[in-house]
Write a structure and sequence with these properties.
heterodimer, A: 184 residues, mainly alpha, 2 domains, 10 helices, B: 198 residues, 0% strand
């Protein structure tokens, strides 16, 4: 028997599908139709062409031009630039930050470390893996906070005082924007 | 040049205060509600009003028939939209737009940097730096600190630059991992070109 949560989730999915269908096909076609009607009605074109003739001509010119522009747009123009201007082009996400600083680690990475590094480093890897598993099993609710690798990097002389402090802050940071005050 | 940099720092200042403001979250929630529910609802209301008030009377449909036709149009539109939406997400424009994006097959800037030594993770640097001395260790130190700076600053700053250890260090580190020098030259040239289109 499906519970209320599942029903709501299903209904929301249907709503999303409906919005995509509406936005990408019906709204798009209707807006084209509206533009064509306005152009025909408010210019002297209606003296020379009937509405169906004008509509045919409009789509005949518009369609190949739009397809061509769309092609270049996808490859080189606005679509490409939109992607590149996204700040996450160079900003690490919360979980990438945790991964880069060693607060979590995937099992594959651990296998590599097992072969390569010292006992202390292996212990840190195992701790990161445990944090990673807790994070995954909690479905993202658990915030991994291991700073074992920061400690080790500091001990090895790879981080100075200032960077060690920054490293700990990143490793133990909260995931939400409103909690950024705690990070600073 | 000075005007440009002043303008840029002015923008950064505004951006930073907006980014760190909890009050701005209200606008975020407002926008999300409007985009996901209200705008759609308003469009639906507009369509029903136009149908009832303009289109149906114009084609001579009156009385109870008007309500039945409106209901039928709404049901047909909803069913068709759901069907088209499902197709669109799984096989139509939504899917194709993503797959036709050049970055579907080109590694984006962050990935390129991630794949180089410039932004590799701290555990890797620690593991590789163990037992090294002198110049090489200094390079690992530079890499570790550059990564930590990047991770730390990206948590709260508006404009984020990737970590940039010196070319000389990157070369030494890559050779230490096992690349030959010619390969490293080619690789770094490519990475530099890729980071141009930021």
């Amino acid at each position: 028997m499906p519970n209320a949560k599942m029903i709501i989730r299903k209904l929301l999915r249907i709503y999303v599908y409906m919005r995509f269908g509406m936005t990408n096909y019906f709204t798009f076609l209707i807006s084209l139709f509206n533009t064509a009607s306005l152009v025909w009605y408010f210019t002297s074109l209606r003296k020379y062409l009937s509405f169906p003739e004008f509509l045919g001509l409009f789509f005949l010119i518009y369609t190949p031009l739009a397809v061509l522009l769309g092609y270049y747009d996808t490859k080189k123009l606005v679509s490409k630039s939109t992607y590149e201007t996204n700040p996450y082009w160079r900003r690490p996400t919360f979980i990438e930050r945790k991964r880069f600083v060693g607060a979590i680690m995937t099992p594959v990475a651990l296998l590599h470390r097992k072969l390569e590094c010292s006992e202390e480093c292996k212990k840190c890897s195992e701790e990161s893996l445990r944090e990673h598993m807790k994070y995954v099993l909690s479905d993202g609710k658990y915030n991994p906070r291991s700073h074992c690798f920061c400690d080790l990097a500091y001990k090895l002389g790879l981080l100075d005082e200032e960077h060690y402090r920054k490293c700990i802050k990143v490793a133990t940071s909260e995931p939400y924007l409103s909690d950024l005050g705690k990070l600073r | 040049m000075q005007i440009k940099s002043k303008f840029y720092s002015f923008l950064r200042k505004i951006g930073r205060s907006i980014y760190q403001s909890k009050y701005f979250d209200i606008i975020v929630y407002l926008r999300v509600t409007h985009m996901n529910y209200v705008a759609f609802l308003l469009t639906a209301i507009n369509a029903i009003v136009l149908l009832q008030g303009v289109v149906l009377p114009a084609i001579g449909i009156q009385g109870a028939m008007k309500i039945y036709v409106t209901l039928a149009v709404i049901i047909i539109l909803v069913v068709l939209s759901v069907m088209l939406g499902w197709i669109d997400l799984n096989a139509g424009t939504q899917r194709k737009i993503i797959e036709k994006n050049v970055y579907w097959y080109k590694p984006p800037w962050k990935v390129v940097r991630e794949l180089t030594f410039t932004s590799i993770d701290l555990p890797f640097i620690v593991a590789m730096a163990e037992g090294t001395e002198g110049e090489l260790k200094e390079c690992y130190k530079e890499a570790a600190q550059a990564v930590v700076d990047w991770l730390y600053e990206s948590s709260f700053d508006v404009v984020v630059r990737g970590p940039k250890p010196s070319d000389d260090c990157i070369k030494k580190l890559l050779v230490h991992i096992g690349f030959d020098e010619r390969q490293v030259e080619e690789y770094l040239k490519f990475v530099k070109e890729r980071s141009e289109y930021r």
